[in-house]
């Protein structure tokens, strides 16, 4: 997919943006993201905008702001305490304006999400900052989150709706399709969502979204979505409206695979039933606040699932869900011409009564349960006006044990025994991404996806060997162990082995051996295994393995530009061979061969490290000027580009001692990285090499390396080695990009994820 293809238009209102995307057949995906630090909030919005999906931005507010404790929010900001969202009232309007400067209004509307029963200060602040889209409702933002009397919440929301209605293009989303998030049969969720939508309309809103939260059964959810859309047509005629789906709001799966599977189900639900927008959840939902990268990974995962969803077969528009919801809506509307008073009266009479809700204004006489088919059903209906439609089964009272079993039904369904066995670890996270755990050896090796990916890898490596041999390169079998290896970086560790009483290393990189090989060959290459014990937190970057292979190339007498030319031609040869000879395999993997048009049409882009740093800082990402581009920054730059590009001229100190310092520009290295487009990140690193003994020893000491460790290498350098340039292409990373895979382990026949002991 191309981000350009996903742009709906420039400068459109929230409701219009979603409508245009829906008309084009694209599901809008949206995170639940909020950070108190303005820089981090801006980075989150940038990453959302650059995600490979049709997205809208979110600024989710913090808990202090939700309850009106703005003084506490300001105190936390002054003390540098991180909050669980963005305190829009506590921040100066100019600060909030800076967060979205250059982002909002160019095909990227932003919604403020909060959770407040007294939203007037929030609405005033968001309107003052130029935002026109928010969400909530007098019922849905009172009963689950507040002890404020419902009557007061209705009054507060009446005034807030009027503030919003005075602004052109204002959009308001009801949260009523969620409520407690679990064990509430869908008919009541649908009814409350519709009632709040009608409330918004009667208070002057002309752009509205109705919400529905994914529940326990896909078929029942489809019935609920059809019911909600039918009721929308019946009660919201004449205003702009759409349906937004929430990924499951109850107890979330703990395994990455379970979480992603549940999210994909929510995306399919929205895509198959006419939902226009999806609020995603991430693999971290069961344990903590997700990172930016985890949010982006969830957005992209949901977008891909929606694209493959198809359309649901025609269902029953007059389903039980519709009949119950319609009966509830009609009964509430008949209570009072003023719907606000009608909502209050409905809860007093028990016409609206949310199971297991402890708010003082909720009667608490209804109960729901998960039936034997996995659907939500009524155990007790209290005074709900659906007695002519529902006869609850005679059931025993709910105990704490049976309640817990019901609440964890979805989690257990998606974290089944197989998923637990293949993911028996808690995957920690970084700000760079997320991945699922590999399946068992049999499942992985017999998977049609694995077999197809391995055939693509074989074809790409065959093309690489042919190109290199045709251009005078000799393939050498690489060293696997040695007394010393590449010093590594970014926290990775080396593996020691006992070699006849001596401590040797498994190769983390063939760089030193490549330079040694030039004593016998002017041009050499190898396909080398590498083992790097990356930090466990890199398990979730989607791009790290503890064991991987590298296509290494070294050229005697070459300069950096010579190496860059070989990289361009080599990569193009590998891609062209696969695109030309394996179109069916790419189609099977869902990879659009048009994604490689720019790659095959000419030279790659080129940008200096300094320019990349300036670009990232301009986008609000706090990239150090003295270090490698960090993983999140790399992903941001990668998503911005439609073709591969080189980052050159890293600062001295950011890379190993073997990267040559530019004689004409001290402090700058003659090196490069190749960055793939579409968010796939780094594919290749290379440089001109230091080859003079005194300079290498000096550089070793500057980087904290002990020259005594490198005895055999330095003896060889002292005796003379050729000047050279070279590079290494990560085979699995390259194949991941080529095949459009979610994670790099999918490009390995025998995947080993950092921190995870596996086969």
TrEMBL record:
Domain Aminoacyl-transfer RNA synthetases class-II family profile: 523-751
Keyword match Ligase: yes
InterPro entries given in the database record: Aa-tRNA-synt_II, aa-tRNA-synth_II, aa-tRNA-synth_II/BPL/LPL, Cbl-dep_enz_cat, Glu_mut_E
GO MF, one example: methylaspartate mutase activity
Keywords: Aminoacyl-tRNA synthetase, ATP-binding, Cobalamin, Cobalt, Isomerase, Ligase, Nucleotide-binding, Protein biosynthesis
Gene Ontology biological-process entries: anaerobic L-glutamate catabolic process; asparaginyl-tRNA aminoacylation
Name of this protein: Aspartyl/asparaginyl-tRNA synthetase
């Amino acid at each position: 997919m191309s981000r350009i293809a996903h742009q709906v238009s420039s400068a459109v209102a929230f409701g219009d943006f979603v409508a245009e995307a829906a008309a084009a057949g694209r599901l809008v995906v949206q995170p639940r993201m909020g950070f108190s630090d303005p820089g981090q909030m801006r980075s989150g919005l940038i990453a959302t905008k650059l995600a490979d999906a049709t997205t809208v931005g979110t600024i989710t507010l913090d808990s202090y702001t939700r309850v009106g404790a703005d003084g506490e929010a300001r105190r936390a900001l002054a003390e540098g305490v991180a909050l669980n969202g963005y305190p829009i009232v506590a921040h100066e309007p100019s600060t909030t304006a800076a967060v979205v400067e250059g982002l909002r209004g160019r095909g990227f509307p932003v919604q403020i999400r909060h959770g407040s029963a007294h939203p007037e200060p929030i609405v005033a602040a968001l309107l003052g900052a130029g935002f026109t889209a928010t969400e909530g409702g007098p019922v849905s933002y009172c009963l689950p989150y507040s002890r404020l009397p419902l009557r007061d919440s209705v009054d507060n929301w009446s005034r807030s709706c009027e503030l919003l209605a005075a602004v052109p293009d204002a959009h308001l989303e009801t949260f009523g399709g969620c409520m407690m998030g679990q064990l509430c049969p869908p008919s009541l969720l649908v009814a409350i969502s519709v009632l709040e939508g009608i409330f918004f309309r009667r208070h002057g809103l002309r752009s509205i979204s109705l919400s529905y939260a994914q529940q326990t059964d896909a078929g029942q959810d489809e019935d609920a979505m059809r019911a909600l859309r039918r009721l929308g047509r019946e009660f919201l005629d004449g205003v702009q409206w759409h349906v937004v789906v929430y990924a499951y709001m109850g107890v979330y799966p703990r395994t990455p695979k379970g979480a992603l599977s549940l999210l994909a189900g929510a995306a399919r639900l929205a895509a198959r039933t006419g939902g226009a927008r999806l609020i995603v959840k991430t693999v971290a939902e069961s344990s903590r606040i997700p990172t930016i990268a985890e949010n982006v990974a969830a957005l992209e995962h949901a977008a891909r699932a929606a694209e493959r969803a198809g359309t649901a077969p025609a269902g029953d528009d007059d389903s039980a869900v519709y009949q119950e919801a319609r009966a509830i809506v009609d009964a509430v509307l008949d209570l009072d011409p003023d719907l606000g008073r009608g909502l209050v009266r409905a809860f007093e009479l028990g016409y609206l009564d949310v199971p297991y809700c402890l708010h003082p204004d909720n009667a608490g006489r209804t109960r729901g349960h998960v039936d034997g088919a996995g659907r939500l059903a009524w155990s007790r209906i209290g005074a709900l006006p659906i007695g002519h439609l529902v006869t609850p089964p005679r059931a025993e009272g709910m105990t704490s044990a049976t309640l817990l079993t019901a609440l964890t039904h979805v989690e257990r369904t998606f974290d089944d025994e197989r998923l637990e066995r293949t993911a028996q670890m808690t995957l920690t996270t970084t700000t760079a991404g997320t991945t699922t755990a590999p399946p068992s050896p049999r499942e992985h090796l017999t998977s049609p996806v694995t077999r197809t990916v391995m055939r693509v890898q074989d074809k790409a490596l065959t093309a690489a060997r042919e190109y290199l041999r045709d251009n005078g390169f000799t393939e050498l079998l690489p060293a696997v162990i040695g007394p010393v290896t590449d010093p590594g970086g970014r926290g990775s560790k080396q593996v020691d082995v006992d070699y006849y009483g001596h401590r040797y290393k498994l190769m983390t990189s063939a760089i030193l051996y490549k330079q040694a090989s030039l004593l016998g060959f002017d041009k050499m290459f190898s396909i080398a295994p590498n083992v790097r014990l990356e930090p466990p937190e890199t398990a979730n970057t989607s791009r790290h393995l503890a064991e991987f292979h590298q296509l290494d190339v070294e050229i005697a007498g070459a300069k950096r530009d010579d190496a860059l030319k070989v990289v361009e031609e080599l990569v193009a040869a590998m891609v062209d061979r696969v695109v030309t000879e394996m179109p069916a395999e790419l189609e099977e993997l869902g990879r659009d061969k048009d994604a490689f048009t720019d790659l095959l049409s000419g030279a790659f882009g080129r940008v200096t490290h300094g320019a990349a740093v300036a670009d990232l800082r301009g986008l609000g990402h706090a990239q150090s000027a003295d270090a490698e581009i960090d993983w999140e920054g790399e992903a941001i730059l990668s998503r911005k580009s439609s073709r591969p590009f080189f980052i050159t001229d890293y600062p001295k100190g950011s890379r190993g001692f073997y990267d040559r310092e530019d004689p004409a520009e001290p402090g700058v290295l003659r090196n490069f990285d190749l960055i793939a487009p579409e968010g796939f990140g780094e594919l290749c690193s290379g440089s001109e090499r230091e080859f003079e003994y005194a300079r290498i020893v000096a550089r070793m000491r500057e980087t904290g390396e002990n020259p005594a460790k490198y005895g055999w290498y330095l003896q060889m350098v002292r005796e003379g080695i050729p000047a050279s340039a070279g590079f290494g292409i990560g085979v699995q990373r390259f194949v991941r990009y080529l095949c459009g895979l979610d994670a790099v382990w999918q490009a390995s026949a025998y995947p080993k994820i950092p921190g995870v002991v596996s086969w």
